[in-house]
Amino acid sequence: MFNKVLIANRGAIAVRISRTLRRMGIQSVAVYSEADRFSGHRRAADEAWSLGAGPSADTYLNVSKLLQIMEEAEVDAVHPGYGFLSENPEFVAACEARGIAFIGPTPEQMQAFGLKHRARELAEQAGVPLLKGSDLLESEEDAVRAAESLGYPVMLKSTAGGGGIGMQVCRDTQTLRQAYQSVKRLGASHFANDGVFLERFIERARHLEVQILGNGQGQAVAIGERDCSAQRRNQKVLEECPAPRLSDTVRNALHETAVRLMTSVAYRNAGTVEFIYDDDSEQFWFLEVNTRLQVEHGVTEQVYGVDLVDWMLRIAASQSDRAGQAIDLEPLQSLQPQGWSVQARLYAEDPNRNFQPSAGRLTSVQLPESSDSGLRIDHWIEPGLEVSGLYDPLLAKYITWGEDREAARRRLAQALAASVFEGIETNRRYLGAVLESAAFREGRMVTRSLNDFQAPVASLDVLSGGTLTTVQDYPGRVGYWSVGVPPSGPFDFRSFCQGNHLLGNPETAAGLEMTLQGATLRFNTSRHFVLTGAPIRAELDGVAVPMNTVCRAEAGQTLSMGKIEEGMRTCFLIEGGLDTQPYLGSRSTFTLGQFGGHAGRGLQAGDVLHLCAPLVNTPQAGRALDAALAYAAPAKRHWTISVIYGPHGAPDFFTPDDIKRFFAADWEVHYNSSRTGVRLIGPKPDWARTDGGEAGMHPSNIHDNAYALGTIDFTGDMPVILGPDGPSLGGFVCPATVIEAECWKLGQLRPGDRIRFQPVTQAQARERAQPDPQSLPLVEDLLRQGAVLSRLEATEDRPAVVYRPAGDRYLLVEYGPLALDLRLRFRVHVLMEALNKAGLHGLEEMTPGIRSLQVRYDPDKISQQALLS
Fewer CB atoms near the end CB (10 Å): N or C, the chain? Predict the structure, then answer.
């Protein structure tokens, strides 16, 4: 047996071969292009060698590079998998000339069966039934004459074709003339051979194939047959073993015919004899021979309990043995089929865009539990993997087994439904729809069944992403502030929630937040939607769309949204909500962290947004939001925003005059503002101290403590209002915090807007109504009361404690002097543990700082005073 085998392939098949090699005690050597340097097939092998960067021609098809690696890695055999060089006779000859065993057929067998006209000759000599066809055609006129002799329809084929490339059905002379040069060009460009010929075309044909293993000495065995009739553009979609609705007579004849053909050429190793089968006449005809392992070999393995890769290695090893003793394949003759197996090919492609390949990062990958003995998934993918557009888009093969066909089909449908792939498009939903189609369920699939098959699509195509459009949900990613993960969520959450309410959606339904310039979306299904927040110019197929009103789009319509007027952000909500995989409990996008939403980023042209199931109760088209509740920009873009004074005020950090100026100023929104924070331009503080002590040189510096959402922190002399994507900890003082009920206003602040901060009491903050101006606290009162709720003086065994308000939902507890003391951090931790153990009703989250603990609470469940106690 071999000591070390190089796998001249990538992806799922390379992983599959590595596992068999490991089980057999053989070392595996993987090769990879730089685009695949983080691929699962590289890590699955014992060694991995780089082929450099570039497309297939420069990497996996680069024979000189592969031969050099084989020499340096000191391998004694190479397994080609399928595709790439698996059927390249020159590569086989080069390997064997260097004493490296090729795990596959001989170069002569590849060459003979690789040319379809030559394969037909061999089949005819072996007494294999053939469809009427022509010899190689010399000219277009020869093709026309041959077609008239055979009778239309005919199939024009490239003699060196494969994988469905270089094949075209011609139903009349005009179509044949149009296709002739095209098919010749395809053959020349893909296979370096422009030879073409004609075959009679069977309208309702099934594609059947027989798995063969040959020992190279005249012995060949058939290991069942597969039905691969579920095809799209001559590319297989679903495969199964055994083939449904075949009589034993036909089944046995298929096996015997395939064995007769492969025995006649003393075939070596694994191969597949493919046939066209006519249901009506129960006749079959030779199609071609694939001189390699097939993509669908797994269904045969599941039904016959055999490892085909294992047998390929054993056959190759026996051939390379100097004694020349051929391996006996007799044990395979007695294999009997058990149950049924079905395979689905999962591709990175978009069925709704004519199956165009989809490249990019897989942000979410969730596969069904592998504990199911009837489920096998051959794959090479994981979250974070970049799927290159350079190579074949096959991501995984789902293979299921069941006691009967229906059990296997049902298990496959369930496995696909339970899977999640996000970041790029896949054909997962399309595969599920094919499995549920009547043609497949009844086993009546023919090769043309999927030509006009349309799977239902519940999605939106992003034609333009606008300036910054992100998926968000309310209340966002709650519960992770203590580990530095912000909540994200809609910046103007009030408008966002109003839109969901109008549609009858759950409050948590995901939608879009658009900044400055809207997106352009094409509906692939009919749904109701609504636009809320800042007014935006929007048209549905050229018809103006009103704000704050439930509208309906039909499948195929395009919603074009332009510039946002009188505000910063517009919300797009849709019936049922957007269907993206929650990350840490939320669908909200955190662009800085590159997670959540769609691919962890703003939307781009080409993205696809899938939709949750439509509502049980259909929204009422035309239903509008009460005008008094809808967003309206303040006069002259001058905002009044209510805040709670603190946690850091005068006289510890600011002078009394600083605080007076802070509340008297009309602050201007800086152009460098975002969801992280809103920067403000205004008066510079005088500061109550000359520096930050141990925390830093500037008087705004303090040791890190937790920030509250909406807190206004001075980063040096410039204040910044913390947004939903802002940091949870910071080392800057915060003189005031926006109350929860008015944080939505921050999402609509536009550069150049003016803000006046209005202090309110805790009680006024909870009233959720504009307080009587006569009852608002005066700045002088704030300065007398200070920004401290309570203090505990230091004792012999305890440092001083200061309790500060941070808005109307947060309480900040600080220990000891403004110094870095690790003992204080331990005390903070003990307090946090004690509060957790107490199980206080209304306590939501705690975030520790260096010498502080911030407690988030629900004031409707526990009052500030009760929490303070």
Answer: C
